[in-house]
Write a structure and sequence with these properties.
Layout: H1 6-20, H2 36-50, H3 62-71, H4 73-89, H5 95-100, H6 106-134, H7 138-157, H8 161-173, H9 176-188, H10 193-207, H11 209-218, H12 223-231
Helix pairs in contact: 3-10, 4-10, 4-11, 6-8, 6-9, 7-8, 7-9
C-alpha cells in the first residue's frame, strides 16, 4: 500500500488552515457577514450569560490571562475530564475496521462507514440546538454518552448484522455531547477573554493525549485483541 509523502500532508494541512482563516467567525462584535443588530444581540447574549462585558481589562496583558489559567485548578480537572471523553470517542480512528467486522467487502465497508457519521452530524446539531433552547448541558452531554454505551453493548452482545450496524450509529452519535462539552468549557472560564482562550487551548491540546494513547495501544503486535478488549466488541476473527 502506497503511503503519502509527509511533506505533501504538511503542506496540504497548512493550505487548509490558511483557507479556514477566511471562513471562521471572529469575535461577536466584529464578525463579518452579520448586520449591526445581529452583532449587538450576540454581544448582549454573551454579556447576559456571565453578567459582564466580554472584554479584557486595560490593565491585563495576554500573559496575564496565561498566568490566571495556569493557576486555576478547575482547568486541570476539566483537562482530565475532557481527556476521558476523548478516550471514549477514539474509536473513530479505526471506525472502518469496526464496520469491516460486519463481514462485507472493502468498498462496501467504506461506503457503510459514512452514514453513521452523517447521522451523528444531524444528532449533534439537534442536541446543541436543544441544549441552547432549554439552557441545560448535563443531560445533553451524558445522554449521547449513554447512547454510545448502548451501541457498544449491542456490538458486544450479538453478531446480527443489522443490530450491530445500528450499534455503530449509536456509537457515532456519542459525539453529540462532545460539541456541548466545548460550550461548557467556554462558559466555565468566561472572563477575561485572554484566560478563556488559554483555558480552551490547554484543555483541547491535553485531551488529544487520549487519542494518542488508544492509537498507540492498538498499533502493537496484538492490536485486534486490545481493540476487542477496549471496545467490548467481538473480534473480527470470530466466526459468524
Amino acid at each position: 500500500m502506497q503511503t503519502r509523502d509527509p511533506s505533501f500532508v504538511f503542506s496540504n494541512t497548512l493550505q487548509r488552515q490558511a483557507n479556514s482563516a477566511l471562513l471562521l467567525l471572529d469575535l461577536p462584535h466584529n464578525t463579518r457577514g452579520f448586520t449591526e443588530e445581529e452583532r449587538e444581540v450576540a454581544v448582549l447574549r454573551m454579556t447576559e450569560d456571565v453578567g459582564e462585558a466580554d472584554a479584557d481589562s486595560v490593565e491585563q496583558s495576554v500573559f496575564t490571562g496565561l498566568i490566571m489559567a495556569v493557576k486555576d485548578v478547575k482547568i486541570y480537572l476539566m483537562m482530565f475530564t475532557f481527556t476521558a471523553y476523548v478516550v471514549g470517542l477514539s474509536f473513530n480512528a479505526f471506525f472502518p475496521t469496526l464496520t469491516r467486522t460486519l463481514g462485507f467487502g472493502y468498498i462496501t465497508t467504506l461506503l457503510m462507514s459514512a452514514p453513521p457519521w452523517a447521522f451523528s452530524c444531524i444528532v449533534s446539531l439537534i442536541n446543541a440546538w436543544h441544549a441552547d433552547r432549554t439552557e441545560e448541558r448535563f443531560w445533553h452531554i451524558v445522554g449521547p454518552i449513554i447512547g454510545g454505551l448502548v451501541g457498544f453493548v449491542i456490538s458486544m452482545s450479538t453478531l446480527n448484522v443489522a443490530a450491530r450496524y445500528v450499534g455503530l450509529f449509536l456509537q457515532a452519535s456519542s459525539y453529540a455531547g462532545f460539541i456541548v462539552f466545548y460550550s461548557w468549557i467556554s462558559s466555565s472560564f468566561p472572563r477575561p477573554p485572554a484566560k478563556r482562550a488559554v483555558a480552551i487551548a490547554m484543555i483541547n491540546a491535553f485531551s488529544q493525549l487520549g487519542n494518542r494513547y488508544v492509537i498507540r495501544a492498538i498499533s502493537c503486535s496484538k492490536a485486534w485483541k486490545i481493540s476487542a478488549l477496549l471496545l467490548l466488541i467481538p473480534s473480527p476473527f470470530t466466526p459468524r
